[in-house]
Amino acid sequence: MPITSVDTDAQALTISVVADFTVSVRRLWDAYLDPRQLEKFWGPPTYPATFTRHDGYVGGLSNYYMTGPEGDRHYGYWKWAAIDEGRSFEVHDGFANADGTPSTEMPEGRMVLEFSETALGSRVAAISYFKTLEEMEQLIAMGQVEGMSEAMGQMDEVLADLTSFALGQGTEVQLIGDTQARVSRVVRGSLPELWRAFTEEALLRRWQLGPDGWEMTVCEVGSVVGAKMHTEWRNLESGESFGFMGVVVEAAPVQRLVTTERMVSPADPEGASSAETLNELTLTPVEGGTLASYLITYPDAEVREMVLATGMADGMEASFVRLENEVLAA
Length: 330
Prior knowledge:
The protein is of the alpha+beta class.
């Protein structure tokens, strides 16, 4: 059990939970910034968390839900207020409605996570601040102290896994709910380098080609809201071609880009018969490189299954390998 202290201070209106681990501060920090890892311990064992957004930058937002034993869901959010890379971050946190909007029935709190080096490894202190004693007592009565302690008590197993989330693991696909999929990979490159690779046409043409034997014939991309997106590829041997069209609906350089997307082809150049998806790209600095995470929302489970069955993840992996070896290494 990594928990070393739990303290409730009615005078300061705080709840503090401190935990120690035999890993580096960097490893501990990444566990909180990488949604794939965070959702393995953020909720208590009987209420595991699923993060549908996790920005990790000032002004960003995190959305998650915890699923109970009976399939019931309980929603929450973080609004990122401050971040000191590798040392601390501050979020405003609270309960949310099913659509992710803050609940007006429960108070919004403030939580600070502080990371420090110790003689045996690292320490994290999670401090929750409350506006009034009544709010603090309300959350305590709802089990916040026990929930935080149980959640952090699961971290040892996550931190001991040094390979599943590391550089070199390839492209990973995780199904979320009925209509979403998260596609993740740690790429050997810095945050600014990755942002340029995803948003500059000259760079994108060099690496986003999928398996060998394809060329990109159209590449129109942007990184401001309203910019049109249009990419097309052609098979060098068969002449087969396809592409995608969409528009930028949200942008926060250099870490988040959200676009719509629908498939186009010679028979349907405007994608009129194609189902539209929402693609949320988030870039997060981690040890060894940058975590590139796509959250893709499909119209329904059937479309999701059909798209993933095309070998999309394999094509993305081939492109990421090309990005590392031919673009970022140049």
